[in-house]
Write a structure and sequence with these properties.
The structure is a homodimer of 195-residue chains. Chain A is α/β, with parallel strands linked by helices and 195 residues long. The first copy, chain A, has 8 helices and 6 strands. The first copy, chain A, has a 4-stranded parallel beta sheet with strand order 4-3-5-6. The radius of gyration of chain A is 21 Å and the shape is globular.
Chain lengths: 195, 195
């Protein structure tokens, strides 16, 4: 399409993660041809989110209030602080319904190869948060990827040196999986951590 | 994320074709965490496109003007009319630089199983367009899928019965491909249409 406005839309859609030129073109055509109402709704949702959604001052998750509802909840256990990489990870933990402590959301994980260091992901605010005098255990729930493991390792050192108890989510065989198809590293960890 | 505004954004992102719950969530988090400027730009591009981009009255492609630049171009051959399924297909043909006739863009292809019939994809306007007294050849460039072939077949019958010359894009072996990996139907067609 040679129309510069349609081109601009295609270009703008590429801001979405995982969307290349072809997908962006397909999306633009689909919205203009079949779902203009959806396009307007999406535009409004984007503007409203950018306008209203900030970060909780205490745990850094997405929040429209200065302090999010989890941080304000007096029934939660303020002695346990769970560190995750993203608000999506926080949401996943919440959905289990089996954690009643507090959270701290990093801005992603350490990734030296991409130039993402301790400053970029908010280590200092986390250390300050963990040293509030109430927290006595920090649960590291960063991803079990290379980046997440490095992040957990570096964080663990720093937190332990400040006298805090540090734990990590258990590694093991995923529920519902067949051993035959589980990777060797996972099985090895599950064996080591058997109980 | 329990925040209803973020949830609304995730919901709105699902209007995009091929985007499910997981991708929408990833997109929302990415935009809010890393690319708020991109989110605003996308919102503006969506609103501008919906507001300004309509369809050319003659060929039905996307256009901000009542008649698009191709239909207005006096150097193009008005005797040849090429029928495509979407503006994206028109763009692909234009990029080849080897077609100098006019276009007509259907609203997709016939798909009886999905309840898409001749009325839904704009057959009547096409027949009216093709019978303008100037067009003497209609090139059917619908896709070489089941739906596109049915569409071409039905169109061909209708146009021929009105005394127009009807052609179809040649089927054959794609340029740059190795015979070994080309499907049998394509090879059979390439054999039949050998020249």
């Amino acid at each position: 399409m040679s129309d510069p406005v349609v081109q601009g839309l295609i270009e703008a859609l590429r801001a979405l993660p995982g969307v290349g030129q072809k997908s962006a073109q397909r999306m633009a055509f689909h919205l203009l041809q079949h779902n203009r109402a959806g396009a307007i709704k999406l535009a409004q949702a984007l503007l409203q989110s950018v306008d209203e959604v900030g970060h909780c001052e205490r745990c850094h998750t997405f929040s429209r209030d200065r302090i999010c509802s989890i941080c304000l909840d007096p029934t939660r256990d303020a002695r346990v602080l769970c560190v995750v990489e993203t608000p999506a990870d926080l949401a996943a933990l919440e959905r289990t319904g089996s954690y009643r402590g507090m959270y701290f959301v990093l801005a992603g994980a350490l990734s030296p190869l991409d130039g993402v260091g301790v400053r970029d992901i908010g280590f200092a605010p986390l250390l300050a948060r963990a040293m509030d005098g109430v927290v006595d255990e920090v649960v590291l729930a960063t991803n079990f990827t290379a980046e997440g493991e490095i992040t957990a390792h570096v964080l663990s050192e720093q937190l332990k040196s400040r006298g805090l108890k540090v734990t990590r989510l258990a590694r093991g065989v995923p529920v519902g999986s067949e051993l035959e198809y589980v990777d060797l590293g996972t099985i090895a960890h599950a064996l080591m951590d058997r109980r």
